[in-house]
Specification:
Layout: H1 2-20, E1 21-24, E2 28-34, E3 37-42, E4 45-48, E5 54-60, E6 64-74, E7 80-91, H2 94-99, H3 104-121, H4 125-130, H5 132-147, E8 152-163, H6 166-208, H7 210-221
Antiparallel strand pairs: 1-4, 2-3, 2-5, 6-7, 7-8
Helix pairs in contact: 3-5, 6-7
Length: about 220
């Protein structure tokens, strides 16, 4: 009987120790709640808590890479496009990330989606296709400002792909083909013009020098 009690006590002690000792990695912090009240951040290293009285919530401080799902947007010039992006962010204030938002990753994702739609909706198609860096910076600034109260720092936003309607793609391809044809005709016309100038210059030289005309005639006969 005594042996059973000792075993039971040992098991209870092991359970309590495992619940009381937490290992926090260098890139993590834990927020500690005592009877529901936030008492501060701890880590990295070994962290001791009071079992059943204190609870912890871990936060990862490393940069998080988050894909923003493709959003269907309408540009200022009424072109419907599908745009996706990737956001790079990290937690800089673990206490705010724990206390001020339920799920900071989900919240950042939703904010990035709405911001992407808004920024694209304020841009023309030409800006969307030709000014990608400016678009990225505008989205980053807006998302960074929105997530700042949550202890989040957005370091970079990259628009990955802009999908145009099939009709628009065909129209742009036809326009590009027409532009290539136009340039080819311009090059051909310039070549013809230069050749005509050379012939006119040769005619002037020959007409001003009769001996040159006779020499050319003899060369033709030979």
């Amino acid at each position: 009987m005594n042996y059973f009690i000792y075993v039971l006590i040992a098991v209870v002690v092991i359970i309590l120790l495992s619940a009381a000792i937490k290992v926090v990695r260098e890139y993590e912090r834990v927020g500690v709640f005592r009877l529901g009240r936030f008492v501060g951040l701890r880590g990295p290293g070994l962290v001791l808590i009071i079992p059943f009285i204190e609870l912890v919530r871990k936060v990862d401080l490393r940069v998080i890479t988050m894909d923003v799902p493709a959003q269907e947007c309408i540009t200022v010039d009424n072109v419907t496009v599908r745009v996706d992006a990737v956001v790079y962010f990290r937690v800089v204030n673990a206490a705010d990330a724990i206390l001020k938002v339920l799920d900071y990753i989900k919240a950042t994702s939703l904010l990035a989606q709405t911001t992407l739609r808004n920024v694209v909706g304020q841009s023309t198609l030409d800006e969307l296709l030709g000014q990608r860096d400016r678009l990225n910076e505008k989205i980053k600034t807006a998302v960074d400002e929105g997530t700042d109260p949550w202890g989040i720092k957005v370091s970079m936003v990259e628009v990955k792909d802009v999908q145009l309607p099939q009709t628009m793609q065909r129209a742009m391809a036809a326009q590009a083909e027409a532009e290539r044809d136009r340039r080819a005709k311009v090059v051909h016309a310039e070549g013809e013009y230069q050749a005509a100038e050379k012939l006119a210059e040769a005619a002037r030289v020959i007409s001003s020098q009769p001996s040159a005309l006779q020499l050319r005639y003899l060369q033709t006969l030979s």
